[in-house]
User: Fold these one by one.
Assistant:
Number 1:
Amino acid sequence: MGKKVFVLAELREGVLRNVSFEAIAAGKQLADGGEIIALLMGESVQSYTQELIAYGADRVITIESDQLKHYTSDGYSQCLLTAIEKEQPDVLIMGHTALGKDLSPKIANRLNVGLISDITAIENIDNQWTFIRPIYSGKAFERKKMVGDFIFVTIRPNNIEAIEKDDTRTGAVAAIDVEVKDLAMTIKEVIRKASEGVDLAEAKVVVAGGRGVKSADGFKPLQELADVLGGAVGASRGACDADYCDYSLQIGQTGKVVTPDLYIACGISGAIQHLAGMSNSKVIVAINKDPEANIFQVADYGIVGDLFEVVPLLTEEFRKI
Ligand code: FAD
């Protein structure tokens, strides 16, 4: 029998995050012909509902409140729990994003259910859903099954492919009224850095710099290459610690985890803590002047050379395409 699948859609800076569409695709697998319901919360969200339907949602439930303008775990959990109580889904999926990492344990606790976090793939083995997730900083993968009937997972961005968008799809949209109250914390304002471009966690191409870039100015050729490829710039902790760039760019065990289609590591030695954040990238290109650098162990393509010569050459060539 088909399952009722709840997907938490995520809005950021007025744009639906791709992981919302990837979660819908994951939901399609688990629904077994059942219904995919996307839940969308925020201050004013009606204009985003059709996009969720185009990506495969059968129904969209909206909850609007000025208290939901910015994410708070209190506000979001009140709304999500209300919607779950009303709809009684069999499956709940959210992105393994900053929001999902914060919200999912709280929801699992309130529902008294298990949670399998950070999944990268779904398999059906002997008629049981099995979830694959990286462990030991990406050095191994484990397969997990839920105990009990309720399935609750968070999915790592950029791993499960979204369904092709179909603007002709139709679906129902309904609002639920929730009085968001007794918030322990409210957010007055979010001040973002002006330089933020493509979202690093969701970028299809990441050009990352390490201590080998030698200065903040050394990141400029990397930014140019990222711009030409429509990607984002990331960094090793070595580069962040040396004050060449902001910690928001750090990739690794104590930074962001990324899984782009293409990861270009420039002047990064490949410490295990860095690999933890990028080794699952689909194609890895390493540029390093030390042929013995550890990064070449995980690279699909290695270029032994000076990044200040190689990166501008790549930019020039990609510009021609
Ligand atoms: P280095 O190791 O100094 O490497 C620089 C590389 O640049 C060298 O391989 C060199 O050959 C190359 N190079 C120099 N000049 C050029 C040039 N002109 N052209 C080409 N190549 C050049 N690190 C992370 O990245 N992310 C994390 O999340 C993280 N978390 C950590 C958590 C803990 C608890 C600890 C202890 C460490 C963590 N680290 C993390 C730090 C990690 O161990 C390394 O110190 C760090 O990744 C090194 O950064 P790097 O590769 O930029 O620098």
Note: The pocket of flavin-adenine dinucleotide is lined by residues 210-212, 236-239, 250, 252-255, 267-269, 271, 273-274, 277, 287-290, 293, 306-308 (CB under 6 Å).
Number 2:
Amino acid sequence: HMDEYEFENLTIDQHGPLAVLTLNRPKALNALNSATFGEMSEALDLIVDNAEIGALIITGAGEKAFVAGADISELNGLDGVYAGREVALAGQDVMSQISNLPIPVIAAINGFALGGGFELALACDIRVASPRARLGLPEVTLGVIPGFGGTQRLPRLIGAGRALDLLLTARQISAEEALQMGVVNYLADEPLAKAREVAESIVKNGPIAISLVKEAVRRGLDTTLDAGCEIEADLFGMAVATADFQEGTGAFLAKRKPEFKGE
Ligand code: CAA
């Protein structure tokens, strides 16, 4: 069972088909250092290998922060082009591991989501934020730039104009403003509870279809409309070849609830 695994900087809990990964480094407001990235990668492998898990929620321990960014004391020790590039690539790998998961991933943003913390939320599929959360990309105030996908995922999500405003001014935005911008999907006083509710509404659906939707959107964002539509047609064909498709359409016609088996 997943709860048995011991990590230093995070916990993973399983609630039926839902897994919750909680970043937990209270002394640094859950900031991401290299040890935490290593543990996240291991935890994600465990989650993806567990066939019972249909959705993942990522959140931060405590009241104050989701994740306050990359660990600045670790960054401060970096020296030279190669060391910097390696840190960015290592963080990006974990962010891609998240966005490539075949199950939906929901960020429950319980407080500050700054720098790498904002980038972590952007690697998730859906974002739920506490009204008390604050989001921002303060990297330029530190003389650096986002390195965990922020300059790429944010403009894809909200457009280059709004992304550049946040990237260049480094201003913090409220959860309310993030909602208006389309950075977050939902505001909720209890973001973890709301994230669970959203996850429950997803795991009722066909799991293969869910993973194919994620793949279609992800691959489509990397290409032209025509090529993306071709990808969509290929994946549509794969969906149509599943037993879940027979079950879903058959259940509709028989006026009953479908029972998807992920086959
Ligand atoms: N890395 C390391 N330690 C951090 C940290 C971080 N990103 N964020 C906070 N901490 C530590 C603080 O140093 C402090 O430690 P001490 O108690 O030992 O002094 C502790 O967490 C509590 O933080 P504060 O005292 O600063 O708390 P606050 O309420 O005054 O402020 C905050 C909260 C606004 C979030 C502030 O902590 C802050 O600005 N943090 C840094 C945010 C930031 O710049 N993140 C971007 C990092 S760069 C990045 O992410 C690069 C990338 O993309 C690759």
Note: The pocket of acetoacetyl-coenzyme A is lined by residues 28-29, 31, 68-73, 91, 112, 114-116, 119, 138-139, 142, 144, 146-148, 150 (CB under 6 Å).
Number 3:
Amino acid sequence: TNPAHIRNFSIVAHIDHGKSTLADRLIQFTGGLTEREMKEQVLDNMDIERERGITIKAQTVRLEYPAKDGETYVLNLIDTPGHVDFAYEVSRSLYACEGALLVVDAAQGVEAQTLANVYQAIDADLDIVPVLNKIDLPAAEPERVCQQIEDVIGIDASEALRISAKTGVGIPDVLEAIVTRLPAPKPGDPEAPLKALLVDSWYDTYLGVICLVRIMEGTLKKGMKVRLMGTGAAYHVDGVGVFRPAKQVVDSLGPGEIGFLNASIKQVRDARVGDTVTDDRRPTGTPLPGFKPAVPVVFCGLFPVDSAEFEDLRDAVERLALNDASFSFEMETSAALGFGFRCGFLGLLHLEVIRERLEREYNVDLITTAPSVIYKITMTDGTVIDLHNPADMPDPVKINTIAEPWITATIFVPDEYLGGVLKLCQDRRGIQRELTYAGSRAMVVYELPLNEVVFDFYDRLKSITKGYASFDYQWKDYREDDLVKMSVLVNDEPVDALSMIVHRSRAEARGRGMCEKLKDLIPRHMFKIPIQAAIGGRIIARETLSALRKDVTAKCYGGDATRKRKLLDKQKEGKKKMRQFGRVDIPQEAFIAALKMD
Ligand code: GTP
């Protein structure tokens, strides 16, 4: 295809502002899908994505559009994930585009991820067309939202499109705008040595690793031998194609085009995103700048509830990692939990998504230990270590300083909930940097220790604001502080899975809260159980779970046999998901619930 007739673009938006719905409409209007196929949202194809309405794996689709100027254009839409944890995937896909549609819900206005995502698009030098979606809603205020886009983001919104992705109003204007207001890719020489950007890669059961590539120069053909310049490995190209959205084989891809190649690459790790794909026999002299690899920032231990399931867990974790190069894992043994894995994630949502997939798709019951960030510990002898498991904390007398990561958080919230949000940030050791109003919403910027955010910040924020706040964060820096390891003892035995690193000033309150929660969560036993929190050898909080005195069935007076059986069944049910610590059974929920702060 002549590059002048190609448009490569992304849609950037806050979650729920209608990105997937718009993508489906564009596919439908250009004939890529029948009405029946439309029923299922096609671009979000994983179960969990659909349930939670979030896009995780970036996907692309090629549309053919006969424009008003009489020419037929190839429009390559690159779907980008909308959530902060996947910011890295957003940024890498943007480098394959020349333009972006900025979708803003006309009733909601600009939100935290609108801002984060559009700034990435601006950083990637893309041309941006603002699109106000959901104008069919009675609450839509397109004028106000246009003004807000100009005030908050600082781009011209006078020619923003007004559409409803749901009803289809304005979709033809979007297609025209893509052609007339977004630039074509820079022309490249089809005869030059191949130079292509590896935009994304994922594992396909039938074809092995599939690489999504954007051709800069040269031509990619089936049968040629390509080299990935970052790793140096060469592969025979078994197939070349495009997504329409179903895979369609093509003869070749030329400059400006986006498509896929499959080349019997075994692991996603071997096809590194940002790598340059070139011709093995005639390599380009100038590889593309490349990307930073996505680094995990949140860690936690995953252990099977039933230790006999360890091999199943290993299998599941390995298979998941095949398709997610940003998920890392290594074996871990815990005195209390036995064998498991220490896993690294891009953020909390990533953690939750992986945990859910393991439980649901791979059918293993898991115990998740306290999430931790990476602490930088300077020892008295000057060495610095990265600590991402509180259980590995060195002896405090050998520690000189401990530093923890900080983030800058941007929160958009309706006025009436502002007080609650400020209090939450303050309680989490936050430092306020900015407080501005845009309409009836406030934009608050806080610096926060990531450690205070990884536990249940999202959950708390949502409940305080009834779901109306939006949140996004950026990495800031490392800061030293007075941090200590708090351990939890149940029946005088340390439960390493519950130990955590906290700020000294918060330790007592956290310890007390944790002991109180555990007291409610652990069922009573035939003996008295002390539950304690400690820093080093010093107990800072204590609760006692009193002994069970009577048989649970005693109060059934022996008369009602079915009730008695039900009660016993219920007990058995409860037993299933428990782990034994010394003589004490701790239910699985206790591990997660105990970590939530109120
Ligand atoms: P993520 O995939 O989570 O990033 O969300 P998204 O931005 O792709 O949003 P999605 O397309 O899933 O739409 C979110 C919700 O808004 C869905 O319930 C849609 O049906 C609804 N929606 C999308 N466009 C419109 C519209 O034009 N009008 C109305 N009334 N609802 C819409």
Note: The chain has a mean pLDDT of 84.
